[in-house]
Amino acid sequence: QYAMRMWVDPDQLAKLDITVPEIVEAVQDQNTVNPAGQIGSEPAPPGVDFTYTIRAQGRLTTPEEFGDIVLRAEEDGSLVRISDVARIELGVQTYTQTGRFNGKEAAAVGIYKLPGGNSIAAVDGVRELMKEVEKSFPPGLEYTIALDTTEAVREGIKEVVVTLFEALLLVIIVVFIFLQNWRATLIPALAVPVSLIGTFAMFPLIGFSINTIAIMGMVLAIGLVVDDAIVVVEAVELHIEKGLSPKEASIKAMEEVAAPVVAIALVLTAVFLPTIFIPGITGKLYQQFAVTIAISVLISAFNALSLSPALCALLLKPKKETRGPLGAFYRWFNNAFGKATNGYVKICSGLLRKVSISLIIIVAMGAGTFFLGKNVPGGFLPEEDQGYCYVQLQLPDAASLQRTNAAAIEVEKLLMDTPGVEYVTSVVGMSVLSGVTNTYSAFFFVSLELWAERKTPETQYKALMASLNQKLKQVPQGIAFAFPPPAIPGIGTSGGVTFILQDRAGKDVDFLWENTQKFMAEVEKRPEIGRVTTTFLPTVPQFYVDVDRDKVLKQGVEINDVYDTLQAFMGGYFINYFNKFGRTWQVYIQADGKNRLKAEQLGQFYVRNADGDSVPLSTLTSIEQRSGPEFTMRFNLYRSAQINAVPKPGFSSSQAMKAMEEVFDQTMSREMGYEYMGMSFQEQKASQGVPAWVIFALSLVFVFLILASMYESWSLPFAVLLCTPIAIFGAFAAIFLRQMEFNIYAQIGLIMLIGLSSKNAILIVEFAKMKYDEGMSIRDAALEGARVRLRPILMTSIAFILGCVPLAIASGSGAVARRVMGSGVIGGMLTATFIAIFVVPASFYLVETLVHRNDHVESQEENPPANPSTDTPPKKNKGDANA
């Protein structure tokens, strides 16, 4: 900001016998707003014809006008003006910081959106505004948007949209291979746009925006919304092959599958209901995802119960033999699938005879889940490639701004020579970690090239950060290091761990510094910690000016004059305001630069005593050199030290936090305490809030209650939920094998897996229960359910798994979150599809046998037929998908 600067010369002040308080008083008297009034204003005697406004000189506006302010009139009639004792210029309010862009002088302007505003809309508005403002720029002045934090959001949405279409294509291919009919494939394919568009339409009504979380939910929803339609189409096709017309087949199929479709939709919705109890940021992330999935699944179920059967009646026809290479592929696939089905039923039959094997599998998977859960590192939000990073430069305490500026220029060159770096914005004279202005700190916004341009291994985010830190170690003038921004912009100033060490005994600075050094020394020894720094600087060289109050009073000097002069000498004294460019700015007085290079120069200034004589400050003050903090941090009222730690590669932020807490417990006394700040505080709150296992347990309870109400049985839901540990084991195994963190995105995927694994079991259990109610034995009903429902289970599961593959191999902005969620869900669905489906018939058999052991007599046949259905099996032909 502009400021009117008066740079006084103490020699001239002494020569003309003028003091700083006298200059301040003169400016305050002569730079004022002076309203004068009107001539002829009311009330006035009759006959006044005109009223005139009186104008008087107001605030001064130019350096020349300030220079003409009169300080004193001499006896000879001459005048002493401010211009006689000071150099006056239109300067800036503060000279403690400098900005550069790519090594060139620049003004760095930060723009922040208002709470509740849309970031992308705000940035778009700024870009449009700058295009208009640029037209009025003078020649040679340009602007660049050096850092746009919404680029990561835009790129993330773009990447997820691409993933969306990739997933849709993979799902359609899978459905086509299984159904082998474009007409039949079209019906599930239509379910995707209907459900997704319907979900987007609901967002404004519930106050949601289209963001990366919502679109990630949409990607997972693609594999879900086709499930219901696939189940309907497959059931209709089965009855058409038995000789029914498409309309009759649709009606018959809906009698069979309406209940499981409703059950699946309710289960997938109910599984996310416990997330409404999660507070804070964690709850917001859960809820956005949960609502997206729930709405899309409910719309999908409605679609499957209405549009899909209608389309089946209109579009489906009896299959005809396909010729050519495609027909040969169909015949090979059908034969292979038929053999796989027979083998699957035989294995299920064997497991029914030895139910204990299924129970052992479930227990083993549960134990494996417990083991992996202990060995997979926990986390909160992953460190993402947001397209930029920060660099902090710290010179020795009390280093001048000129030294810091010279070192910053070297750092800028180093950064600009790094592949993958596009822009470097420097702010010299401030620490981004502490937010404090000082002369020996500088920080840099390092904007990286767009993700599409960073394809080489060395320009990937983690490799680039490692490379930067390796290069920054070579800076000889001070300590420099690169660190990531917070996972959620605006919450804290950095990634990693922000630990606040507190002195809760109210002791002095030395006590806190001693404990800080002791704590950091032990933290550095921990294998989880890669780097640890502190913003607490208690030993900065300083000068202490001791004002002898006794002498001041004896000399008849106003003590305020002493301190005002001292402030004007070194720091700059604010006087009042002036108007310029349609705005109001500040007026300052300060000693010229050459007169404040040493503390001893304070003696060049004088103050006036009660007798009118000038008294040098050197007779009223003494100066001594000390060391101490330039600022102290108070967190929740306690004097504190901020400690920033970065985990070593392979360790998560939660492991680093746990390590620091353990070190605190081992080394600190009861007089000390600790807190967290920024993202670390949010992570601590998430860990102290509703635990993940409670959410999982509540999800299971909600699913159990939904199934119990649908089946009107307290026992049958156990047949569905007994296989959940198998899916959870697969998720943990995938995350463990890919060396990922079990963070909030993995937790969301795990909750989703409860519903997904239940979906497969529901398809078998629902059909088996129907056959049992029709008079089949429990054993035959279980095997019939396994045989008939294998195709829709594999079709829907493989479609969902392949739909999630683009998530698991994602790259670019937000890729870490997508890879974690995709990997966990795929791993869980693989075990649920290829292991749990063998256990489901046995769990149904076990539960129903225990409940109805006196109702039916089980068949004692040693080797039941491969096709135990009492219905007439469909005629096998070359084009039959069930051959």
UniProtKB/TrEMBL annotation:
Source species, domain of life: Bacteria
Membrane topology: Multi-pass membrane protein
PANTHER family: CATION OR DRUG EFFLUX SYSTEM PROTEIN, PTHR32063
Cited Pfam families: ACR_tran
Membrane-spanning residues: 160-179, 186-207, 213-236, 257-277, 289-316, 355-373, 690-710, 716-737, 744-765, 793-817, 824-847
Gene Ontology cellular-component terms listed: plasma membrane
Family per record: Belongs to the resistance-nodulation-cell division (RND) (TC 2.A.6) family.
Xref: SUPFAM superfamilies: Multidrug efflux transporter AcrB pore domain, PN1, PN2, PC1 and PC2 subdomains (SSF82693), Multidrug efflux transporter AcrB TolC docking domain, DN and DC subdomains (SSF82714), Multidrug efflux transporter AcrB transmembrane domain (SSF82866)
Lineage, highest ranks first: Bacteria, Pseudomonadati, Pseudomonadota, Gammaproteobacteria, Chromatiales
Region of interest called Disordered, as start-end residue ranges on this chain: 856-883
Keyword check for Transmembrane: yes
Compositionally biased residues, Basic and acidic residues: 873-883
Keywords: Cell inner membrane, Cell membrane, Membrane, Transmembrane, Transmembrane helix, Transport
Subcellular location: Cell inner membrane
GO MF assignments: efflux transmembrane transporter activity; xenobiotic transmembrane transporter activity
UniProt protein name: Efflux pump membrane transporter
InterPro entries noted in UniProt: AcrB_DN_DC_subdom, Acrflvin-R, MdtF-like
GO biological process: response to toxic substance
